[in-house]
Amino acid sequence: MTRMRMLSRATSAIVLFVLFFLYGQSLFTSAYADVSLRKFPYPYRSMIAWMNDTEGLSTTTFEEVHRFLNTLKKNIPGYGDGVGLDIGDSFWLMAKSNSAVAMYSGPRKKDGSWPIDNQHFVLKYLKAGWIDSLHSYASDVNSEAFTFTRADAVHLIDWLKGKGIYLDVWIDHGDNNSNVGTNWGHGRGAIAGSPEYHSDVTFQSDSKRGYGFRFVWIFSGREHRSANLEFEIEDVSEKTLSKLKVGNTIAIRTIQNKNPTKVKITKIDPSAKTVYGIVNNVGRHTMLDYRTFLDSTHVAKAWEFSRVTSDRFGRIWYANLIDKQVSRETLDYLVENGLYEIFAVHLGYWGLPSGKGIERNTPQLLPEKSIRAFRLVKTYQDNGKILVAKGSRLLRYNLANDFLEFQVKVDGSRTIIVIKRINDPWLGSFTPAVNDLKGITFYCDKPVNTDIYIGNDEVPSKEIQRNPADFTGRKSIGIKWYAPDYTDYTQ
Ligand SMILES: [Zn+2]
């Protein structure tokens, strides 16, 4: 006998009803009830990414720092042994600085050509995977020798397509008019009719004209999140106040995070009916938010994601402050609550101790405490707690996990999980390839008797991973995550 049910976030209410009905009829086999989607790839309980913004990073430092971050090479000068984490970077199409991680560096000549053509470097690391995002097209504001226009966007898109490279992630930062966000006052990329207008060809949109960037970080306010924020709750009732004590932890909802967040109470002021605390506003159940651009001619849509950029003292998105991003307390919190997080970083800059501004002319190396922080995170990955993934991989996984639609068939002794589609409600439903499903894992009773199909096609056994019980006591089957790649691509 074969029975089916459809699971997706959008139909969960219906699923509950169907489950109840089937149980009532005693037609449900145990294999059905026990297939459910795991939040993260086995055995992990959290997934994090660092996204490096390329400002301030020279090609030399890029190679140095990624040799430490991505490989297991021994005795790297200034760093010690590599940590071998999966950390990606960003690039520009055009930059003013001669040494920037950019395809072209300026100033642009009168004939439109560039004095420095670094296509070779950018292509090498795009192919290696050490670059997996675009930090908008241009590095700085317009000047006569440095004018960005739509033609430049089209040029890069054609170049990427010609090389067979499809990037997902757009970081809208820096002070330049190729940005689509207008917060800095210069972003004109989504204003139809302007010479810089490009959002229709850049992003995956309903018109399908776009290249395909579908995950964006925009400098606008809500995209920033902070670790250990100071917090005050006003108008607390006397009854509640009488129950609270300094040092207690309570759960609240914040504007940035719909899910309850723990607040440690630091001070109670009964006369002002106010409770003060520290909120660890790190970690989210999903990184994806709906985003529509300012655009008068058509709807350019993307998934917007946020990143941790600050703590309560100021910006912590600098090479020398990694320890402030990933304390043991924060990492444990992510694990215990089963959360994603993306940390923004500018590996080319050191932040001032005051938390305000950038230190220039730094040695351009990670200081010891940042190196130790990366090593600490590595131990969480080695212990099966936190998976460190490139931002693009995390976001693709997040999308698949949030909107996966699958059916479960029981046929004799075999349980068959049929993946139907990723029912993306914002950018459109699609039938995934194995690459869109890396790491997707299902709890099930008997992994050995379970198979995974995408539509009518069985996922090849080399892509399948059957897992013993995890911390919940449940076994699982999944599509393998990416194999680690510790290759030193600088050689
Ligand atoms: Zn940046």
Describe the overall structure.
This protein is an alpha/beta fold. The chain folds into 3 domains: 6-44 and 405-479, no CATH class; 46-223 and 285-393, TIM Barrel (Alpha-Beta Barrel); 229-279, Thrombin, subunit H (Beta Barrel). Helices cover 21% and strands 26% of the residues. It has helices spanning 12-24, 30-33, 59-70, 119-128, 150-162, 199-202, 238-243, 322-325, 328-337, 368-382, 391-403; strands at 6-7, 36-37, 46-52, 89-95, 102-105, 116-117, 131-134, 169-172, 215-218, 224-227, 229-233, 249-252, 261-269, 274-279, 289-292, 301-304, 307-311, 314-315, 340-345, 350-351, 358-359, 386-388, 404-411, 414-422, 441-443, 450-454, 457-458, 464-467, 476-479. An 8-stranded mixed β-sheet has the order 6-5-4-7-8-9-16-15, sandwiched between helices. It is globular and about 70 Å long. The protein starts with 5 loop residues before the first strand and ends in a 12-residue tail after the last strand. Bound molecules: zinc ion. Zinc ion binds next to loops.
Largest sheet: 8 strands, mixed
> What is the average per-residue confidence, as pLDDT, rounded to a whole number?
85
Spatial strand sequence of the major β-sheet: 6-5-4-7-8-9-16-15
SS-based structural class?
alpha/beta
Bound molecules: zinc ion
- Count up the helices: 11
Low-pLDDT stretches: 1-31
Residues in β-strands, percent: 25-35%
